[in-house]
Amino acid sequence: MTRARVIIAGLLAGLVAVLLAIVFYGPLQKNSQTPTPGRTATLKEVSSRGFLLVVTEDDYKPFEFIQDGQPSGFDNELLGILRKYASFEIKQEIIPWTGLLAGVSTGKYDAAITGALMSKERMQTLAFTMPIADATHYFVKRKGDDSIKEIKDLNGKPLGVQTGSILLQRLPELEAMLAKTGGKIGKVMEYASYPEAYQDLALKRTDYVVNTMINLQSLVKEKPDVFELGLPVSGKSYIAWAVKKGNNDLLDYLNSFLGEQRKNGTMTRLQEKWFGRSFPDLPLNVVPES
């Protein structure tokens, strides 16, 4: 091969490499303003680039949902306060639950401003802020369903829960409760979102749905003629925001913000507004039991 052909072949190989990079990673940019795949930005990097990229859920009342085309709920209201508190811009993406925490753990987003249940499994890839609410699990049933009055009455009945929810991992607690009465859990039906699970419950495709007390109280308040709150089916659980594990400076920053909202009474006010009650005794640090 002549020297000219070698040079041409090298140039073509370089061009192919650039084109492949553009296909898989997008156009090459100097001082890119998007998070690097596989990692989230540190607080220093967030300040340097000028924005924090957060993600919230689209349909998880009363924490986050869309109302009249606008983000609403407890977390979205806190997020509005965070925008005033921060010295940098807060950019927000609103997506379904199934991709939310994974997006943070893989570096697509910097933080999940959402009602995420804390668990040992999630702590393998995520770090959680101080709790924003108690999240003890309850069941909800159809209004007037007299076949369910006590925990033992759940024996063998089909139940609904959201795919990817920590509540799936906490079902053994309910299983243990039922075992004491000689019963067992029935068919577990998983849904992409809780509104779908509630719809199937109303249509008698399941007999009860398991979720946090806060979410179910909100559901029953909104549709008192359709649903009725049941009994607790788990031990203590807590809800918090999340960042990627190891991003300690950003975690400390969010904890400072949340701590300030506790001290100035904003947290209590928003809890009462959106949850119907406050949680004055929330711990600062939590080590989940499961």
Summed up, the domain count is: 2
* Total strand segments: 14
Helix percent band: 25-40%
**CATH hierarchy class name of the largest domain:** Alpha Beta
Determine the structural class based on helices, strands and strand pairing.
alpha/beta
Q: What is the overall shape?
A: globular
What is the CATH topology assignment of the largest domain? D-Maltodextrin-Binding Protein, domain 2
As a percent range, the share of strand residues is 15-25%
Q: Terminal Cα separation, in Å?
A: 65 Å
- Average pLDDT for all residues: 86
Parts with pLDDT < 50 across at least 5 consecutive residues: 1-34
- Largest β-sheet summary: 6 strands, mixed
What would you give as the CATH superfamily of the largest domain? Periplasmic binding protein-like II
CATH architecture grouping of the largest domain: 3-Layer(aba) Sandwich
Order of helices and strands: HHEEEEHEHEEEEEHEHEHEEHH
Radius of gyration: 23 Å
